[in-house]
């Protein structure tokens, strides 16, 4: 799967218009779809605009990845329901320009609160017509989270899934997407200020995530992380239940 995004969602990023996003995205999307190597591969488009989602799917995109979980465009979930494609609902408070504010970083129990807030987004998506089997959940590492929050979420994936399942049986087996690759919290933990230096830490975080129940991982360095995922899959075959 290839994930394409034409709008920056890094902290403090300014929002561009749907038209500007389309002007950036569509030529690249069309070019990638023409590549022989993409035959049989899935393309995900990272956007929080319903207009962009609709146009991207009409051009051949297969999945919509919405970092806002439908909060930044009231039409998003209804549009995606009509498009009939899978929808990634991610947890974030505010928008990229405000998500790291002190107010948005306040948690008493980060795993429980992220699960609860994410469930509310998923419930709205279902009410808009997106069936649960087309929804992928993402706890949003690096989005309205501090370093300690991200580490706690990374190790708390089973509890997040369990909390959502407690509220919705239909979501108990929803795929979990994890996006830890080269994130700032890895750099702060390992003293690696440059993003490209964080690949070893990314592999470690992906390993922890997959062993904790993540089904999809979003990465930059595909080769190294593919090896990590293959090893995790092999190890999980030998996982034993507690005596």
UniProtKB/TrEMBL annotation:
Q: Where is the signal peptide?
A: none
* Catalytic activity annotation: (7,8-dihydropterin-6-yl)methyl diphosphate + 4-aminobenzoate = 7,8-dihydropteroate + diphosphate; 6-hydroxymethyl-7,8-dihydropterin + ATP = (7,8-dihydropterin-6-yl)methyl diphosphate + AMP + H(+)
Q: Where is the Pterin-binding domain?
A: 1-230
Alphabetically list the UniProt keywords.
Folate biosynthesis, Magnesium, Metal-binding, Transferase
Q: Does the keyword Metal-binding apply?
A: yes
Q: Which GO terms describe its biological process?
A: folic acid biosynthetic process; tetrahydrofolate biosynthetic process
Q: Which GO terms describe its molecular function?
A: 2-amino-4-hydroxy-6-hydroxymethyldihydropteridine diphosphokinase activity; dihydropteroate synthase activity; metal ion binding
Q: Tell me the pathway.
A: Cofactor biosynthesis; tetrahydrofolate biosynthesis; 7,8-dihydrofolate from 2-amino-4-hydroxy-6-hydroxymethyl-7,8-dihydropteridine diphosphate and 4-aminobenzoate: step 1/2; Cofactor biosynthesis; tetrahydrofolate biosynthesis; 2-amino-4-hydroxy-6-hydroxymethyl-7,8-dihydropteridine diphosphate from 7,8-dihydroneopterin triphosphate: step 4/4
Q: Which cofactor does it need?
A: Mg(2+)
Keyword Kinase set for record: no
Entry's NCBIfam families?
Answer: DHPS
Q: Which family does the entry's similarity section mention? A: In the C-terminal section; belongs to the DHPS family.
By what name is this protein known? FOLIC ACID SYNTHESIS PROTEIN FOL1
Organism of origin is Salix koriyanagi
